[in-house]
Amino acid sequence: MSGSQNGAAGTHNPWLIAVVVSIATFMEVLDTTIANVALRYISGTLAISTDQASWVVTTYLVANAIVLTASSFIAKRYGRKRFYLGCLGLFTVSSILCGFAWNLESLLVFRVFQGFAGGGMVPISQSILADSFPPAKRGQAFAIFGVAVVVAPVVGPTLGGWLSDNYSWHWCFLINGPVGVLAFALVAFLVQEPKSAIEERAKLKREGIRLDVVGFLLVAGFLGSLEMVLDRGQTEDWFGSTFIIAFTVVCVACFCLMIPWELSRKNPVMDIRMIATRQFGSCFLVMMATGAILIATTQFLPELLQQYYGYTATWAGLALSPGGMVTMMMMFVVGRLTGIVEPKYLIAVGAGIVALAMWDLTNLYADATFWFFAWSRIFIGLGLPLIFIPITTASYNGIPPDKTDQASALINVARNVGGSIGVSVAANVLAYREQFHQSRLVEHVVPSNPAYQTTLQSVTNYFATAGNAVDASGQAIAYIGRQVQTQAGFWAYIDVFFVLMLISAAAVPLALILRNVHR
What we know:
Number of helices: 20
Distance between the termini: 30 Å
Mean pLDDT: 80
Strand content: under 5%
Low-confidence stretches: 1-6
Helix content: over 70%
């Protein structure tokens, strides 16, 4: 089948276009998870803490979310193909530069550029697909696109772990180089600017409609400052730090100025009125919670497995893979269910399943097996599709046709911002609760405690028998200290999963207040 000459496919086969844009999308989505299992390698190579290394994930998500708000308008106003190729080129170059980063600061700068470029690629890919196929064939085309979006987060941790273990974490980014060059060449050769897009661009130019630059800067200031406060609050002693106070002031100021500014614009970069509605606003919050669970667990589970269970990055990634496969299969099942069952009930059930999966992880213990973690991820894989697909249907309900691009962008913003906030909240809970549990456990490790004396004597005898009797007492004290730290770490991770369970559970009532949708 050939595409219409007025569409994005031109005279080329539209299925070829679907494959090409799916390759680019796969690469972009892959980068949201590929670095997660490599964070310990990154922190070791760059001589930074794992907390600082987590910025590699969150900066990408925030930059991605900021650009999403403006990508649709920029593409319409200045040319979709031109914008898409610009994003793809910047993404490829930034990926290569990330691979050659020499310190944390350079890596984060390149990662921000990568996030900016990636934020423009996914929504434009969807637009290109929609223009390449007649309405009757779009469902099949979006199925190919959907598989790329779902498979990428599954492949990411496993591929990232394998590359880090066998080569270097740098290859998690350098691998995008040849793929990006290929995708750029194919898009440049195969995709054309549709006649309708050219006409719309000319219309916007005639009417003098420009990007809401002030609104965009206020949104960027709000999201960027919020991320800085959440990420650095724990290490900078929160509001005891002038650094945190300054960014909090910027965050609040941008937020307070953003609302009246965006409400008064004819063409706002972020439609505040849409988020304020019961239907779309609830969907926005549920998607934020979903993004928090998805990204936080994808980052902290591999971290836990590598730090306390001795897993390699490859095996830590493999522990997440069964859940990803279940998610992919569930996408087809939920696609059918959405036409039969009200979306709000599917979302509520999905959020409930994810909450139960998080509660299951609070039963964490020192001898937990590979399948303990794999099964928890499988349960998450069952629940997430019940949220992702129905929420799209529910969020578009009552939205006028000329606002669908804005709705799509905002739902993607919710997922990314939620993911960034989820990682930051989890990191802060982990750091604070680890200190708390260690201080409580140390209270019992005192010479006056008979249980401590008994344990110390037993461990000292063990080391005396196994090695040098002179150093046995010092070795025993060091061993007990490590055990205290390990136990505090386990309890802290349990607290993280408990907080994520509460976030999931909060999405259930939000889902139930949604309106019924005509299916």
